[in-house]
Specification:
Strand content: 15-25%
Number of helices: 13
Number of domains: 1
Largest sheet: 8 strands, parallel
Shape: globular
Helix content: 25-40%
CATH superfamily: Aldolase class I
Distance between the termini: 29 Å
Order of helices and strands: HHEEEHEEEHEHEHEHEHHEHEHEHH
CATH topology: TIM Barrel
Bound molecules: flavin mononucleotide
């Protein structure tokens, strides 16, 4: 057992009991330990690469993925952790989100606030995309020693809160840096609830499909997608709070503009709706976090929305004749074989996870992917 496997096991046993501590202490403990844990995790590799049976391999956009699951954006914000993911048998590796300008993210109480609700399989964060910028992370990704079946992806965003021509130019410049760094796919993050300018695409907010977002997507299509000199799929990540009735319009725009996929999705701010999925003993902690920071909810409460949105998108795609290869990716509450099976039954081949990764790591350590994929093929 490696050190982080051991720490994670102990911590998982303690977690359900420490929810009785004062809430600000808990936010402090979780925010700091998350950061420190990831820093150690990326250097604490399994002794041997974990093998995932060949039958789980997937080819999307002519790229081979070792299996249909990999880390969601935000876990390896600085371009660290590729070797860890490849050795654990992840289907791919996703770095970022990065922006053109270096960002310190949101700070309150001297923290990038994050909290877990262990009994609910959920978490909240109000980090606000801290990152070192496209150029530094592109430089790191260019130096990665690639392993078979673990393609490299990068999550990017335009500089939040800025909506001028220079912002878009800088975003394209960043995407070109990643193009030159040799990444295999790009995910455009349009849905972080913790920064200005990103939208939820709910029915109260139809504007997210008009004006700014559509302009930005058109600009990217004209200035990046149509100029790609090699295979480099670009997918858009939207919120799990997206209204299902907007899906046809979303897919129509994305496919017309020649994007390659959509990911449902990001954390949610539908606090009242998701509160019912938080256990009674953790509701007060949830209320504390929402009141003090706001933030986005992740984990089990998103399971149903991510599945419904992905399923609706796949069904709509099937009803259309679309010339380019376009895939739906599911993120939100994915944590078990049953979830992967539900995705697969809904026609979703690729999943990402964040909150569920840590819970599975505490149980299975570096064998977390093989536990989900070994004994059956989806
Ligand atoms: C601490 C934390 C940081 C995150 N940072 C990012 C980010 O930088 N970019 C992004 O697109 N999503 C980010 N997310 C959202 C996740 O990528 C994912 O969409 C969300 O957590 C739902 O998946 P899950 O239920 O498996 O956690 C973050 C989530 C958490 C909990």
């Amino acid at each position: 057992m490696t050190t982080t496997e051991f720490i994670s096991k102990i911590e998982a046993r303690l977690r359900p009991f420490i929810t009785t501590l004062p809430p600000l202490w808990l936010v402090r403990i979780y925010s700091n330990s998350r950061r420190i844990f990831i820093r150690h995790l990326v250097n604490d590799l399994p002794a041997e690469p974990v093998r995932i049976p060949e039958a789980n391999r997937i080819k999307l956009w002519d790229i081979e993925f070792g299996c249909g699951l990999f880390n969601a954006a935000g876990m390896f914000k600085y371009g660290e952790g590729y070797e860890l993911c490849a050795m654990q048998g992840a289907g791919a590796y996703l770095a970022g989100t990065t922006t053109s300008k270096k960002r310190n993210g949101n700070r309150k109480d001297t923290l990038h606030p994050f909290i877990a609700y262990p009994n609910s399989g959920a978490a909240s964060n109000w980090m606000g995309l801290p990152n070192k910028g496209h150029s530094i992370v592109a430089g790191r990704l260019a130096k990665i020693e690639r392993k078979p079946l673990c393609p490299v992806g990068i999550s990017v965003s335009a500089d939040p809160g800025e909506s001028n021509y220079d912002t878009l130019k800088n975003l394209i410049a960043g995407m070109n840096q990643y193009y030159l760094a040799g990444v295999d796919f790009i995910e455009l993050n349009e849905s972080c609830p913790n920064v200005p300018g990103h939208k939820q695409c709910d029915t109260n907010n139809k504007s997210c499909l008009e004006d700014e977002l559509v302009d930005r997507l058109e600009y990217i299509s004209n200035n990046f997608l149509s100029k790609r000199g090699r295979n480099l799929p670009v997918i858009i990540k939207l919120s799990t709070g997206t209204a299902p009735e907007l899906i046809p319009a979303i897919i129509d725009i994305l496919t017309t503009l020649k994007f390659d996929g959509v990911n449902f999705g990001n954390t949610s701010t539908k606090y009242e709706y998701h509160k019912s999925s938080i256990t009674d003993e953790e509701k007060w902690l949830f209320d504390f976090f929402v009141k003090r920071y706001g933030g986005g909810i992740s984990g089990r409460p998103l399971k149903e929305s991510s599945l419904n949105l992905s399923k609706t998108a796949v069904e709509y795609l099937k009803s259309q004749s679309i010339s380019n290869e376009f895939h739906v990716i599911r993120t939100g509450g994915v944590e078990s074989r049953a979830d992967l099976k539900e995705s697969s039954d809904a026609g979703v081949q690729m999943n990402q996870w964040f909150t569920g990764y840590f819970d599975n790591f505490s149980r299975f350590g570096h064998r977390l992917y093989s536990e989900l994929f070994n004994s059956h093929v989806l």
